[in-house]
Request: fold
Amino acid sequence: MAPTSSRRLGSLVQSDIRRMTRECDARGGINLGQGICNLPTPPVVRDAAIEAIRSQKSLYSYAEGILELREAIAAKLERKNGITADPATEIVVSVGASGAFSAAIHALLDPGDGLLILEPYYGYHLNAALVAGLEPHFLELTPPTFAITEAALEGAVRPGTRAVIVCTPSNPSGKMWSRPELEALARVATRHDLLVITDEIYEDITYEVEHISPATIPGLRERTVSIMGPSKTFSITGWRLGYAVATPELAGPIGLVSDLFYVCAPTPLQHGVAAGFSMPQSYYEDLRASYARKREWICAALDAAELSPIRPQGAYYVLADVSRLGHERAIDAALQLLDEVGVAAIPGSAFYRGKTGETLLRFCYASEDEVILEACRRLEGWRS
Reply:
């Protein structure tokens, strides 16, 4: 018998995020689906990476990252997140935030352990957990507020639940966890001795609500792995750089697994990101203002098309209710929109297991202004 794939991959298929990019390319449409962050990289980040290449800084770095970058991350954590972390023992640079997540779940959880995942979820969190042999436990949040209560969290914890993933700001909803919600999480996590793994990759893209790092909540620092990265902030999604922050007892095993999986993150690019952390506060203010402007454009266009948008608090995605199109499957609504308008979105079924996802599409507005404005023009003129 010829070899086949492992049993762990038996239920996995390629995400509709990838499928819609291919469908969009085949039709020559505007891709508001995949969150590739198609914007210019800040010159200070770009030029520092180029100079590192020219200076032959192309060898392996330490598995946990170059010290210069870890020190820059520690200063940023203190300044912006309110987290004090030792760059020598509590920070691990990895191959993207997704790489840090994979290293964390393999290092700190065992096959068969339960991971609590909130819907709508980021598909990579779910699929990485399945490949690691974890058992997903779910808690569905209700649009448009996606509110979280202590009772709901408590009810979602099973005897085998060992950890919970907290994505704030959320992909795909843009929801940000409030302080009362995080305090409720701390009480539940303490009662059940849960590991908390965060995904804070969109922390610099927020609007009316300020980002709160879960590790700053009393009772969470010692049990939290904070996962962050510069890819969205500096528009370098293809550089594949992220990092995990945790106590030495947690960061040590994460570093071991990250070394085993990836050896190290790309060394010259680490130098570029280290330089980026020195940029002034005005850069981050301009970044927020730019995305806020795009958010207003896309929400207004979706309103005009009678595809009710759910205004995000953070990140650069907006979910829209497409129930009026009358499709039982969100993928069919997405394909209709692509065929008739030339704009690609992601079916909500990529983020939900049940019927709620079949009523939603996700639109990404991380592109140049002219691209977003053309997509909005098309949407505003569409009447299905």
